[in-house]
Design a protein that fits this description.
By secondary structure, the chain is mostly helical. The protein is built from six helices and two strands, in the order H-H-H-E-H-H-E-H. It is elongated.
Length: 165
């Protein structure tokens, strides 16, 4: 073998190695066998588990909503929950209380979601839209706030944005 043939073979090996490294770096499929078949089976299995978990969550939320309705029927005091969110009321003994943490960069969506998860409000979309209103937009104040389920959406928004009440 002559020197130039060995040199050409070495350069070819270097180029192939560089191509494989680039393909691996940028997740390019260059005809090499992949683990896609195992991954798709695993993804499908995880999706089924996710669907089952979502069904369980929906069932638990429905049960949680049924419990307060049964308590309201026992007291024979009809209430409309949508209106309770907007009207200030005296703090009843069974009002839910939570500490809401507002940190830098938090979005109105996350704030509304936390309030709904804490049982303070019924509909997070209403709160998100209220906080997106130009009156409150971009004025969430960092800190910890005590909020009650008896507070109206407007009161909560004024509290966490520092607007005068």
């Amino acid at each position: 073998m002559n020197k130039s043939a060995i040199r050409a073979f070495g350069i070819a090996l270097f180029l192939v190695g560089a191509l494989l490294a680039l393909a691996a770096r940028f997740d390019l499929n260059i005809g090499l066998p992949t683990k896609a078949s195992k991954n798709t089976e695993h993804v499908e299995e995880l999706q089924k588990e996710l669907e089952q978990a979502n069904k369980e969550i929906a069932l638990l939320k429905e049960q949680a909503k049924q419990a307060p309705k049964e308590n309201n029927q026992k007291t024979d005091a009809p209430e409309t929950k949508a209106k309770d969110n907007h009207k200030p009321a005296d703090t009843p003994k069974n009002a839910t209380t939570m500490t809401l943490q507002i940190y830098s960069g938090i979005t109105p969506y996350i704030v509304a979601q936390k309030l709904e998860d804490g049982g303070i409000i019924e509909n997070s979309v209403e709160m998100e839209l209220l906080l997106a209103n130009p009156k409150y937009a971009r004025s969430l104040q960092i800190g910890s706030y005590e909020v009650h389920s008896s507070m109206s959406l407007e009161e909560i928004a004024k509290l966490i944005t520092g607007k005068k009440q």
